[in-house]
Design brief:
This protein is mainly α. It is built from three helices and two strands, in the order H-H-H-E-E. The chain has a two-stranded antiparallel ribbon with strand order 1-2. Helix 1 crosses helix 3 and helix 2 crosses helix 3.
Length: about 80
């Protein structure tokens, strides 16, 4: 089985933290620089994490304000 890319592993970890209550709706995620240090990856990898999580509706990004966790009940629920 091929290894998962880093951005996939990191986004899965964030989703798991949100599902188990470690991250709550409205919680602000650390900055890109902080996440780079935490996971020992490049900024482009963290940007891919954010793109994936935004597509899954796990986060809301607000330019200049930050990245916030959304309510798990609303993930992928658009009609």
């Amino acid at each position: 089985m091929p290894a998962l890319p880093d951005y996939f592993k990191i986004s899965n970890a964030i989703v798991a933290d949100a599902k188990n209550g470690k991250l709550k709706p409205g919680d602000k995620l650390p900055s890109i620089a902080q996440l780079c240090k935490q996971y020992d990856v490049s900024p482009s990898t963290i940007r891919l994490v954010f793109v994936r999580l935004e597509a899954l509706e796990v986060i809301d990004r607000h330019q200049g304000k930050g990245v916030y966790i959304t309510d798990p009940a609303t993930w992928m629920r658009k009609p």
